Amino acid sequence: MEQLLNDFLLSKAWYFIAARGLTAIVILMSIAAYAVLLERKASAWIQGRVGPNRTNHPLIAWIPFVGTFLQKGGFIQPAADGLKFLFKEDPLPGHVRKTTYILAPIVALAPALLALVMLPFGRLPTGEVITLCPGADIGVLFMFAISSLGVYGIALAGWSANSKYPFLGAVRGSAQLISYELAMGLSVLTVFLATAKPDQDNALSLVSMVDAQTGVWNIFYHPIAALVFLICIFAEANRHPFDMPESETDLVGGFHTEYGSFKFGLFFVAEYSHMIIGSSLFIVMFLGGWHFVPGVPTVGSGLIASLFGVAWFFFKLCAFLFFFVWVRWTIPRFRYDQVMRIGWRVLLPVAVLNLLAYFLWYAVKG
Amino acid sequence: MAIKVVERRPLSLAERTYLPQILAGLKVTWDNMLRPPVTLQYPEERPTIPNGYRGVPTLVRDPNGREKCVSCQLCEFVCPPKAIRITPGEIAPTATNAHVEKAPQEFEINMLRCIYCGLCQEVCPEEAIWLQSQYSMTGTNREMMVNNKAKLYELGGALPDSHYKWDRKKAEAERQAESGH
């Protein structure tokens, strides 16, 4: 017993893993919170408004310049939003299936957080990859498998709410995910076909994918696969123009109609986490990960290079999140039958043909 | 009438992919984003109120500082939500405006009832009640939302007058008295 306790409490690996996990959760949650701010600000700019610029705390407002800047930029707003969600009354409607109703937001958020452990976002000067789960060689499989589980949260929420609109939203969400998963997988397969060598270890690792892009980025070799994948991550993240499960104009609030306060907040964070995961996957697979520009992998050397790499990855992520928002305020939502038609009759054939074309190309080239 | 047949071309391949349209749309939103916002930062910046704006109803004085209301109570009767309450009063015979028939002793407009319809202004024979430029009416209790006579004159101020009806009546009466009628 004592031995066990010693092992459990004194083993440094345990603390290290817990600390890393906690750091990742905190970072992801804050990026998601600030993605909400980005959404609000960018939508305001596009619509000729100013966006959140009032929220502040007296202690922060007291700092000259910085306080004003933080207030004008709305940087305190996410904290206020989060606190609001925390302190609101958490109602449990009488007509819901209670177990699944409470479970659904957790099931929605957990895969989003879990999928992130495989994400590589930089390289230490020693050559080690900065990620939560180093050495895993099935990165892309894991991320696809886990992040697709997020739809269970939507399905559970819609089912347990026990009313029409959430149910419709959940059914739509499930159908949409199934439709776009195929095209997504096929488009990714094309890329891995190109980068993985026949006798290579770690062929499905995201790190080797980034390493393969030191020269030309994959988006230039595989523009069609990139386009298909881009459309699919919009659909997988349930973002406009594919936000079928939510579509507030025809389904009230979609799957989370019956939710309020912190449970709704969890759904909100889960949606933005899926955006973050989708963007990161796109960056890693098509936009060269932490590499600077095509042909110029790094700037500087040693520690500077690795810090710059992480910062550059973060910059790409922010730009991509902005792209999500930009598209949202540009294109109207597709009708449900249009979503299905795009998924099955356009994206899937295009992805298959693209894969076949690359098969033939490699067969001829040898 | 000549019938013009509109040519309905089949969509080209580029149009059917929908991608050029999306790119054009993205450009539109991008251009919009670079424009300055049209927001008015309200409590700090105030809108310019155009002439003829119908805000809070007020009582006005004429340029000589005489109160114009003669407490005929037409506005009180016409007011659809019954927001106006007038207590008519006599004018002291020694007052400088003793030639005017009456003046309100108290004049209250309950802004919790007022619907800003402007019928009071329309019906007033003396042009004494005006809906003016004040648009923000706030208070922390019900009493604060009832404008009494002093508050109404404070809000109203003086407006130019082209008639001077009661001065002319007085002058006419004096002229007639002089000529012995």
What is the secondary structure topology, with strand pairs?
The complex is a heterodimer of chains A (366) and B (181).
Chain A: H1 2-10, H2 12-46, H3 58-61, H4 66-72, H5 77-87, H6 98-114, H7 139-147, H8 150-161, H9 164-195, H10 206-211, H11 218-221, H12 223-236, H13 248-251, H14 261-286, H15 302-328, H16 336-365
Chain B: H1 13-17, H2 19-34, E1 57-59, H3 74-78, E2 84-89, E3 103-110, H4 119-123, E4 129-131, E5 146-147, H5 149-156, H6 165-178
Antiparallel strand pairs in B: 1-4, 2-3, 3-5
What does this structure look like?
The complex is a heterodimer of chains A (366) and B (181). Chain A has 2 domains: 12-87, no CATH class; 91-365, no CATH class. Chain A contains 16 helices and no strands. Chain A has helices spanning 2-10, 12-46, 58-61, 66-72, 77-87, 98-114, 139-147, 150-161, 164-195, 206-211, 218-221, 223-236, 248-251, 261-286, 302-328, 336-365. Chain A starts with a helix and ends with a helix. Chain B is an alpha+beta fold. Chain B has a domain at 57-159: 2-Layer Sandwich (Alpha-Beta Plaits), CATH 3.30.70.3270. In chain B, strands 2-3-5 form a 3-stranded antiparallel sheet. In chain B, strands 1-4 form a two-stranded antiparallel ribbon. The A-B interface holds A 42, 44-50, 326-327, 329-331 and B 22, 25-26, 28-30, 32-33, 35, 37-39, 41.
